[in-house]
Predict the structure of FAD/FMN-containing dehydrogenase.
Amino acid sequence: MRDFGGIGMRDRGSIRMRDFGGIVLRSPARVVRPRSAAEVVDAVREAAADGLDAVPRGLGHSTFGQSLTTGVSLDMRGLAGVREVGGRHAAVGAGTSWREVLAATLPHGLTPPVLTDHLDVTVGGTVSAGGIGGTSHVHGTQADNVLALEVVAGGRAVTCSPAERPELFDAVRGGLGGHGVITAATLRLVPAPERVLSCTIPCRSAGDLLRVQREVRAEHISGQVKPSEGGGWRFEAKAVLYGDGGAPPPGTAETERLAYADFADRMRPDVAELVALGEWARPHPWGMVFLPAPRAAAVIGATLAEMAPDDLGLSGVILVKALRDGTVLFSVLRTASPGCASVAEMLAANRRLLDRARAAGGTRYAVDSTG
């Protein structure tokens, strides 16, 4: 790597990049690791002068090449770091992972109100996509909980918020990088509980799972569909109560009490196991759609009726999350494991899911790999 105007850079052909999806590969003309908003401005200007796109990339957790480019790849990890934790907010660089944010806020007894299940994704990446977690039925998306942003747009670095350049603020959150490059964010924080009670509630069907998510009062709630030992599928809601008080919801079959930090990082041992097994590095053709609540159970049921466990992969997961705006996020997170359905077959199934969702009045979640 050579240094160019203070910006780390690699030339075309020296690197071939993939994202977590592992389906799309691209060779950027150059890779730049900016260390400030000013360096992002320079990199974007130089890319435009060369007729190239400039695409920000954090930890590369997109699933169909959204963080890849044949132009200039902006490695936003050069902008990682928590700059301030004060009051009920944290100021962070866009390349900061949510794990790093949480490590800085928990000593103050604070947490972001919405965390993704997997913490090793960046603030800029999830804010530009939306960012959904188990508390989104209460707090909305991660993008809804941003107080202000620093953005490179129109050839300069500017700040925006609900009061300052609100149009840009609204366009950049969930804008997938199409309206500017996020370089820093001020995040809303809320008090963090010391402990949580995780309650597992078996459900009879997709409709029953959605009913439980609507009716149960819990700070964190999610749903999962798993292969049944006797064939078919079984449904399970997970309701998580914050603090030491509160009785398990009706229908609870199993409980577990955890420290909040352990609960927030609950995926870490699973990821370590998947890495060891080689599953983490396999292609991940994920299909994710938003569905109107009244028609969600029908779409979920029709999708499951045409699926077998091999269509999901050995480490694939099916998630169902009812959101606060009356929509349901249905996520079929496939892994192209050896001996299971091929990548092409999984992508074709994703397209059928998207067609079915659109016919029901739904839409795709733009981080998926519909193909």
Observations:
- Confidence is low (pLDDT under 50) at residues 1-13.
- The first strand starts at residue 2 and ends at 4.
